Amino acid sequence: MTTAESATRTVSSQKPVEDPASRPVDAGVDLDWLASKIDYRRFQECIHCGLCTASCPTYVETGNENDSPRGRIYLMRSVVDGRLGVSDDVRRHLDLCLDCRACETACPSGVRYGQLIEPFKVALQQSAPPGKRSWLQTLILRYLFPYGERVKIALAPARLMQRVGLLDALDTVGLTRLLPPTLRRMQAMLPKLSSGGAKLPEVLPPIGPKRARVALFLGCVADAMYPQTTAATARVLQRNGCEVVVPRGQACCGAIHYHSGIEEPAFDLARANLRAFDLDSVDAIIVNAAGCGAMLKDYGHLLPQSDHDLARRFASKVKDVSEFLVQLGPIAPAHSVSYRKVTYHDACHLVHAQRVRSQPRQLLEMIPGLELIPLEETEICCGAAGTYNLTEPEMSERLGRRKMEHILATGAEAVVTGNVGCILQIARKAKEYGTTITVEHPIDLLDRAYEGR
To answer: What is the number of other CB atoms lying within 10 angstroms of the CB of residue 291?
Structure first.
């Protein structure tokens, strides 16, 4: 029996150790920092019923109790109680968590698992031994992805190589296999890059009577990879009578930094967003990427006490685009699209973190002639999970294959999902499977249905 398994069997009957000096085990993480971030009652909310296990992607794949939400709560509580150190074994079980928060949806006790695993992952990254993450991954996750303009510049050579057919040629002859593993995975996920078009103006007028004034959050990777979806989001909002403001001082939501274990830079980005958006002048802050929306809605919980009041006001304004449109009362599109049958994959941070489930389906069902096919295990993670497909490629691959098998079984022409990471992950698997199925954001379909394209 491993140390982790032993702790899993005993932790539920233990009491927290109050005196740090009495802790029998060197935790390997900063327990005082964790105590400032985690309310110990969050651990005690778990009643160990196990109803979360069937919804956990890693437990479904491995069958290991330590890879379930219940098991990970046992491990984290053991570390905080001072009865277990963060060994390689313990670190592995916690690192493997996708933070998809499907367990929160399944939990009958309302355990806020995200408020446990997220600070714990920060602590794990802060205490990670040298070499835990390659210099290339560190460079990409800390200094490239969170900065949209840098991503656009970095994508320029790839865009040119795609245009002249060189990237496909290099892939065909196998030369892309010479790339470092991280770059090879990134290259495999590259979508067909558009030119990006003109930068959105700072204010876009409503089409028809004005019904609302909203601010559009651009993000970083999402806008750099899919600027056409950003533009489509603005057009759809305009079609629904919204005046759309695009604040110039906005930044990345901070999720990439935060989940990479560097808290202060994440908070700096969050504060830049708090300054950039004039909350009194808009009815909502609109987001079209599930991961960004979940992070923005968590500002009130994550940011330090000095920022709480403004952060909570900000978070209360944040709406996923599908959530906002259904709340507003969407105008029905008049045109059909090229698909007849599509299926919908629930992005984890939309369905579980934001509890936005029916709204994207309602928008899709408005499109004339479009049939929505149910997807088995729609709420199980596809393996993207932000940057998880770069940092945990093996488990990501297993979940990607699982998702693709279910998608193909629907017979749909396209799979639709509300998060850029899911789109990149599923599109890569579709390419590997050699299928013609396409992957799109629901707003892209709705935009074409309005425009008649």
So the answer is: 29
130: three-class secondary structure by DSSP: coil
Inter-residue long-range contacts of 46-51, CB under 8 Å, 24+ positions, other chains counted: 46/70, 46/73, 46/107, 46/109, 46/111, 47/108, 47/109, 48/12, 49/108, 49/109, 51/106, 51/107, 51/108
Cα separation, 16 vs 23, in Å, equals: 10
- State the average pLDDT over residues 244-262: 90
Residue 65 identity: E
Distance CA 217, CA 199 (A): 14
Counting every residue written for the chain, the total comes to 453
- What's the CA gap between 171 and 178, in Å, rounded? 10
Range of the domain at 46: 3-126
Could you tell me if 16 and 76 lie in one domain?
yes
Summarize the confidence of residues 349-363 as an average pLDDT: 96
- The one-letter amino acid code at 331 reads I
Are 357 and 415 in the same domain?
Answer: yes
Query: pTM for the complete prediction?
Result: 0.88
Q: What is the dihedral of CA 403, 404, 407, 408, to 10 degrees?
A: -150
Question: CA angle 134-136-139, nearest 5°?
Answer: 115
- Count of CB atoms within 10 A of residue 17's CB? 16
pLDDT band at 29 (very low <50, low <70, confident <90, very high): confident
- Whether residues 272 and 340 share a domain: the answer is no
Regarding whether 271 and 340 lie in a shared domain, the answer is no
